[in-house]
Amino acid sequence: TQLGAALTISDLTVDYGGGPVLHGVNMDLVPGEVVALLGANGAGKTTLLGALTGRVPVSDGKLIFDGTDLRQLRTEDRARLGLALVPDGQSIVAELTVEENLRLGALWRHQGHARERAIRGIYEMFEPLERRKHADGHQLSGGERQMLALGRALIAEPRLIALDEPSLGLAPLVVVQIMRTLRATAKERGLTVLLAEQNVTGALSIADRGIVLNLGRVVVDAEASTLADDAALRHAYLGF
Ligand code: ATP
After folding, report:
1. I want to staple 164 with a disulfide (CB 3.0 to 4.6 A). Which of 4, 88, 96, 189 is the partner?
2. By alpha-carbon position, which residue is closest to atom 28 of ligand 1?
3. 59-96 pLDDT, tens per residue?
């Protein structure tokens, strides 16, 4: 078990060429904290996660992961430090079985018996995956695919996991199951979680804190319970 990483984002600006889409964003995540990153379509959530992992070029600002400036590191080196991304669209290898996908995720972290133990650990976390371990990725339901995408990231024992809309297109009961497992795992391992979601209620139900982006700026940064309970705040920034 590793402790979660702290993350400090300061003055983050991203410009794809047509003017900034993130305008000097600041946020601070403490180790083991679950933070919901909220905001409408186009607010900049995916861009922020891309900047974090190195898939999107940063124009200005700092990304400090447990004391290390991520900007000097390539995507693979950020992953080795313990930064995991679960992109939207449930990126698993559809031609491989559930177990093969998990083995792939465990490749550089665990060898031999430790790898098999880690795979069993994921099956305990997501029981449907064990029942489907010999099924190919393309035979899975949306919920099973999302569990596998999450399992494949978690098996490498990241210190911070960033997820892009894990509940997209899933049945409400499956969303609840995945969200609960995510929170329980985070709290058990002390893992830091940055959860980008349009499913505000689902995300706030498991988050410690909610940060709302609007047109590339942070407009709210508050306790999740405050955001969930304050009708005026919700109405002003989340549209319901
Ligand atoms: P969504 O929920 O749709 O993913 P989002 O909050 O994640 O929304 P982004 O996808 O980060 O928002 O988009 C933020 C802004 O950046 C949008 O105006 C979008 O059009 C623009 N954008 C995103 N990717 C690119 C790109 N590769 N090139 C140019 N502009 C982009």
Report:
1. 88
2. 16
3. 999 999 999 999 999 999 999 999 999 998 777 999 99
For residue 107, give Cα distances in angstroms to 75, 102, 118, 134.
Answer: 17, 9, 11, 18
Q: What are phi and psi of 48, to 5 degrees?
A: -65, -45
- Over 70: is that where the pLDDT of 160 sits? yes
What is the mean predicted confidence (pLDDT) over 187-196? 95
Phi, psi of 8 (to 5 degrees): -120, 120
> Does ligand 1 come within 6 angstroms of the Cβ of 44?
yes
- From start to end of 16-120, where are the E strands? 20-29, 34-38, 60-65, 68-69, 83-86
- Provide the whole-model pTM: 0.94
Q: What is the dihedral of CA 90, 94, 99, 102, to 10 degrees?
A: -40
CA 135 to chain centroid: 25
Alpha-carbon gap, residue 110 to 182, rounded angstroms: 21
Query: Using a 6 Å cutoff on CB, does residue 57 contact ligand 1?
Result: no
| d(C-alpha 52, C-alpha 181), whole Å | 24
ipTM of this model? 0.95
Ligand 1 neighbourhood includes 42 CB (under 6 angstroms):
yes
- pLDDT of 2: 60
Phi, psi of 18 (to 5 degrees): -110, 25
Separation between Cα atoms, residue 47 and residue 164, nearest integer Å: 10
